[in-house]
Amino acid sequence: MQLDLTDATWTDVRDADTDLALLPVGSTEQHGPHAPLGTDALHAETVAEAGAERYDGTVAVAPTISVGIAEEHRQFPGTLWVSPDTFRRYVRDVVGSLAYHGLDRVVVVNGHGGNVPALGEVTATITRHDDAYAVPFTWFDAVDDHGSDMGHGGPLETALLRATHPELVREDRIEEAREGASEGWGDWVSSTNLAHDSAEFTENGVVGDPGAGDADRGEELRELAANALDRLLQAVAERDVSRPADR
Amino acid sequence: MQLDLTDATWTDVRDADTDLALLPVGSTEQHGPHAPLGTDALHAETVAEAGAERYDGTVAVAPTISVGIAEEHRQFPGTLWVSPDTFRRYVRDVVGSLAYHGLDRVVVVNGHGGNVPALGEVTATITRHDDAYAVPFTWFDAVDDHGSDMGHGGPLETALLRATHPELVREDRIEEAREGASEGWGDWVSSTNLAHDSAEFTENGVVGDPGAGDADRGEELRELAANALDRLLQAVAERDVSRPADR
Amino acid sequence: MQLDLTDATWTDVRDADTDLALLPVGSTEQHGPHAPLGTDALHAETVAEAGAERYDGTVAVAPTISVGIAEEHRQFPGTLWVSPDTFRRYVRDVVGSLAYHGLDRVVVVNGHGGNVPALGEVTATITRHDDAYAVPFTWFDAVDDHGSDMGHGGPLETALLRATHPELVREDRIEEAREGASEGWGDWVSSTNLAHDSAEFTENGVVGDPGAGDADRGEELRELAANALDRLLQAVAERDVSRPADR
Amino acid sequence: MQLDLTDATWTDVRDADTDLALLPVGSTEQHGPHAPLGTDALHAETVAEAGAERYDGTVAVAPTISVGIAEEHRQFPGTLWVSPDTFRRYVRDVVGSLAYHGLDRVVVVNGHGGNVPALGEVTATITRHDDAYAVPFTWFDAVDDHGSDMGHGGPLETALLRATHPELVREDRIEEAREGASEGWGDWVSSTNLAHDSAEFTENGVVGDPGAGDADRGEELRELAANALDRLLQAVAERDVSRPADR
Amino acid sequence: MQLDLTDATWTDVRDADTDLALLPVGSTEQHGPHAPLGTDALHAETVAEAGAERYDGTVAVAPTISVGIAEEHRQFPGTLWVSPDTFRRYVRDVVGSLAYHGLDRVVVVNGHGGNVPALGEVTATITRHDDAYAVPFTWFDAVDDHGSDMGHGGPLETALLRATHPELVREDRIEEAREGASEGWGDWVSSTNLAHDSAEFTENGVVGDPGAGDADRGEELRELAANALDRLLQAVAERDVSRPADR
Amino acid sequence: MQLDLTDATWTDVRDADTDLALLPVGSTEQHGPHAPLGTDALHAETVAEAGAERYDGTVAVAPTISVGIAEEHRQFPGTLWVSPDTFRRYVRDVVGSLAYHGLDRVVVVNGHGGNVPALGEVTATITRHDDAYAVPFTWFDAVDDHGSDMGHGGPLETALLRATHPELVREDRIEEAREGASEGWGDWVSSTNLAHDSAEFTENGVVGDPGAGDADRGEELRELAANALDRLLQAVAERDVSRPADR
């Protein structure tokens, strides 16, 4: 059950009985000619809400951080970003304020691949050095076999949009999107990606086929992600979060 | 006319012909027992959208930064904050990414008094040292005579909520809100506020009478703020933003 | 009674019985063709000494920080500045060292408008996170009705110089100063100042009429400021500075 | 062909004709009771030298950075670490000094999984904002099918040590190492690793079977890694490293 | 000839024809029971003024930075300090603002041993990376054979005070000062000082005999230091400050 | 007796009974046409090992930090450096991790003059603010009368190389090295070094005569340095490292 920290009053939070919080983080960045810049933020929010609703207990849900680490897409107009360092500081501070109120078991619900390394780092820092336990959850890593289809502005993200924000998918540009898409992410030699910017390997920003996922698939993805998040919340709620003893 | 950077695609931004952008910033913090924690973020968004719609030309609107500088309210559960330094970095980075795409005349639309000093500083830094011109606009400073009624979770903020998000105002707690409110902000001696935290002078977080503003007043506030922002956008669009010559 | 930390020995400080300190901060920046660059630092020092003398008890007075936040005047030769971040660090460190010796109730006596936002921020940070209580005191905000006349290098500052450092006022340039002055500070649209640098609105750096304040007025200003600071010291000395309990 | 920057003189570097450099980075951290703390640094050095020798051209090899990001192993005595931020700064500065001399195509040869996210970030930052092109190369990601056997102090690392530094493998503790080992890395729920420290899931620090790799396998690993690095150097030498145009 | 940046107006600086500036930096720290906390700042100011007066040309003199790096004396009440990092930033920013106006050959006139390493570092950084040339000048290193007598609150510093600020020397505590003094600075083994704080080796903060220098010696010191600074100003004025070519 | 933290296992460190550690730090920088870039790192390592072996007790020896503060040599190809700030952070973090395991009496064994000021600062910071006691030891300051012969790539450094790494001394370039050498370090006026880069005063990077020290002298230097370090370790082991009481 979600306690939305935008809508709730401070007295509602005072009266709630939980130490669990979700912090949705996304990105505002190109997702091809057919999908909105806000895709990753919208998806993080969608999954956070669905997971919180599924969970048998109260979970505070913080407002979404909509701009993340996306400089790799800077060649595409409208892409917004902050530096990795700024992003980590912002997330760490927000989690610190959640923990100040006893909401000290925090799952950062993430909708953007570019945020993953920074979230791994900052949740470890928080857990080791601050007064909170935090872990990241990236929704498209927790949707079973669908994961291998991820791409960028591709089958999964477009499908989930069709289920949740169909008006934001430009169906009349899908063909164009497909044609300018690259097949895979990056430009690899010896397991090293030589490309630091997505414009080095994709013409229109798309990776994968945005036509390969309809609204039904989108519903399934939401379901899978929400269930995975629910299981994670249960595990986080029960976990012994004290740090292990020195050997 | 607003170009919403959450909903638009990168090709939409590429095809738009503007150098103007709005960046709404708010806060997620106590607003008494009757008003939502998200009040300041919601209001910043409301005003930014209304101002952009009124403006005769295209204005990009970035996603709202919902957590700002609010440690002064930390004693009230649910209040979120980042440090002033983190806030400035985040705003500066986002504006920098807007400017990267030529959206280099930016008005930061602000809904929270606690953000004002940091926004003055960071917009000056951006204008002097980065490739953009930026100014802050705090809506409740631009609503004519209403301004003196501001308070916190008081007449103005509650009125605007009644006009835009009536379901988020707990009307049944207005009496309680009024009774625990303080009359003014701070604890002053010799023009110095001795109180660094709001809990030093308000019992329930409210300053002013939340009953003193109905939805009609809220509509008027939105109208006034939107008009003021429209005028500001015109001035920013036309301004010679080159720095003056050394004397 | 002032304990001057430049003149005192460490044994004098050891033997003093007080937890009160003043830290004067000013600026070295253009004040028109008639007034010295050091005006703000000199005034902060004047007021700090006068206030300490008036106070019934011992008050340590730290050496003046003469360079503050003044990049807005950079187009005028001789103006010195540090970044806001550097300024906050410097003030915070100095206050930390005062507090190390038990001088942990500190009033930062300020002579420069450009320092105000940073001082509000850093004194709050110190009070919440360090082992001291600190507040800022800006002298020209505490001189009753005179305040509205402030300007820059205008009536008040010139008057106070005439009372305390008459040799530093170039009376033969007053006419020139008046003629190149602007009437108000900034360039405003919708309550937003579009000008980040003073050179955008004043030809010679002056705001207001530097002829409108003689030495008598200067003496009155010193008296008013000293009394206000005395009252503030009393309040700070008696204040319960423990942070309020969480709600 | 390697130009060792520890052994060479400055005149040797001046006379060399190359823009390629390798920067080996490792870690000094627990590798079970049988393998030395320096395993990751030794391996990075081994692979860098072997790759440089294989390459048909001159490659400068910087001295190894032996302490990396390893706080996750802190419960095991002797583990050394720096913060991720310090690590990134150190690597960025060193690469900057290489580039100052025209060695501006840099491969960071990495021997430690915990360094991977930070190296991805810092090489992107360098490439986008500094005067160099940099990519990371993690040797155990480039050894074909062996990769899935990685573990920690497990088959691969122990095998490579047996080939290169047999005297540092405590063969008499292999049985003990095997018995206290965990099977996999981490403690996973919904694709999220709940464990931030290795001591949460391994008793003696080992993951995988350290007996499952003899010196022959070690030689094969060195060969595979050297070949992969050689191919990468060729690709880096020929790559157009200018950043792509804005769309 | 000195152009005092506290007393001058901006028009005076505009009309001056020089690129030379002095920035006096001192410390506010214990100097025994007989000498004032401000000794180092006063001496830096004395020497800067005397050197500027001697120099045949105009030299701008910035206001004194009175608090430096002195945490080593923290056990003695009244000692003030900032962190080395804060000190470097403050000096760098001030020098940057001097250089903005073309005062880009700066001698930092120093009165405190504890500032020496940081000044060496920051002047090198400024010279290499900013738009200015800067060097430090520590007065007691430039007084010929007297130098070996330096101590702390000892012969030299007390003598110079007797010449310049006799009212600040507590002559009636000289005997006490002498008795509690240590003979040398530090606690040395193998050329390493094991003591990080002065309280580890001096009882009352004094090193050396404060009785061993009368006002005449003080005058001689001022003369020697002023002459040395004059020579340095000449050398700085004439120096080719372009950085040498790469080899 | 040395416990080498590269070769040891974590269980070896667990079983050792000591709180003493050495951290060798050097530089990779020009040492003339005849001596290797790695001279300073090699010498720090040599001395650390010899000192640890001499000491009657166990001393952990961390891996060498090979790149230090050497921007002053940047005009000479192959010279590597990090900023002073990065260097201090790296050293502080590594010492912090040593102390985490109880190795909290640390001697930083230094082979490079350019590191000296930063090491003085960071060891003081560590000792005052972290959970460790640290001091720097610079080998060439502890070799009795030899010290005055130091130079750069000169008699001492070349002699020690001849004793420890004769294959790295290009004997056939000694004549050339001598001819392009300068006699002293720097370009001095009034005790101030006007040169921030070594290229301002030495043609080939050498200071002093590299022919003036044979392998025997090198052995003597190693002996002297090792003995000095042994004495220092004894003093550090026995020292009361609690900070002195406030006066």
UniProtKB/TrEMBL annotation, chains A, B, C, D, E, F:
Q: Name one GO biological process term.
A: riboflavin biosynthetic process
Keywords, comma-separated and alphabetical: Hydrolase, Metal-binding, Zinc
Q: Does the keyword Transmembrane apply?
A: no
Chain intervals for the UniProt region annotation (Disordered): 200-219
Look up the domain of life of the source.
Archaea
Q: What InterPro entries does this protein map onto?
A: Creatininase-like_sf, Creatininase/forma_Hydrolase
- Names of the cofactor(s): Zn(2+)
- Which Gene3D superfamilies does the UniProt record give? Creatininase (3.40.50.10310)
The terms under GO molecular function for this entry are:
hydrolase activity, acting on carbon-nitrogen (but not peptide) bonds, in linear amides; metal ion binding
Name under which the protein is recorded: Creatininase family protein
Q: Write down the species.
A: Haloplanus aerogenes
Which lineage do the record's taxonomy fields give for this organism?
A: Archaea, Methanobacteriati, Methanobacteriota, Stenosarchaea group, Halobacteria
